[in-house]
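Here is one chain, start to finish.
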Amino acid sequence: MFLIVFPILVLLGASLQPANGQVFNPIQYGAKGDGISDDTAAVRAALAAAASNNGGEVLFDAPFAFLTGCFNVTSNVILNVKGTILASQDSSNYVQIEPLPWYGGGQDAQLSGNLEWQPVVRSYKASNITITGGGTIDGQGAPWWTCLHRGNDSEHLVGAPCNGISRPNLIMLVYTTDVTIYDITLKDSPSWTTHLAYCTNVHISHVTVLAPWDSPNTDGFDIDCCVNVLLENSFYSGGDDAIAVQSGMDYFGRTFGRTTENVIIRNMTIERSHGLSIGSEMSAGIRNVTFENISVNGSDAGVKIKSQRGRGAFVQNVTYTNIRLYNVKVAIYLTHNYHQNLPPRNATATPQFSDFNINGIYSNGAEYGWFLDGLPESYIGHVSFADITLENTSQLFEYCRYIYGSCVDVKPSCPPCL
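Its structure:
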């Protein structure tokens, strides 16, 4: 029905040649690297020295384990993690920061204006950053998950280490260009794991993200208000979306966000997750996104595009191709009703979906084959379903309404609401 073609500019890897030949090792600044002593001051000193040098390699060498609070990565820095970075579980080692303007509040209190704890690894208005080394960044997120108090609003964020403030991401790069992240393991983030926020020209490859299946909001890769992103050859198993392509929430997203566009996600292996997701925060718009050659096993969803009344904006020109799904809850999930029973809004706050090409999908053992739920005032439009096989599905349709498009070579049958 349509062809999606777009250019994408990415870094194809960076050689580990530090700026001016300088290597900054936290051990040289007083770190113990024993995984017990608080190395926050030494780690920050090493990063500050690299910043003063206009870049360099900051080496977290093996076999050391550096227990640290949050720190900032500046331009032209290679974060070379050969050993382990252990994120502190003590909020006194973190800094309270303003939330991203396109969410209007911290991660756990969006739209509220509340602050959030600074991510463990953060850049802000930087360029030419590499995170690599073959080691591990461990968020040690368990106490942060506990103080979220899911299901108990009166206790939300009460107690240490949250202390009323939204949990930190593990990595958040903000207004940053020319980013390479490869050959590293990221585990047990307090909240989102790798948050790319208003970034341009990003290449992520051979990254492993791990968290327990029931850990709250431990997304793998959040691509948020970004342009030109290639994510490939990586693995996720955790407690939320494996990938979430986003662009801000409601009025704040429409006012302060940027359209996310030119994104390719390919050659991925996904186990426990909430899916290969776009949205639901998409209020600055999302376009030109491709998911290809991905295996998903044991997740809540496979293909997943979600929004709701109040978001506004658009998701358009999206392709999912060569996706293999095993034992997922819902194989193909498209909705304008992510939070149901919201009242209709004006045209500005009503989401629009169009031009989706979903083909080459194989699913075996799904609980539901299809969840297709547009809005009477905003149909999901111009969707092409082709070469789709759903085997051993407990129930073929959970929802099927307010959508139009085409359907070719779909087994056992095409959606009746097209």
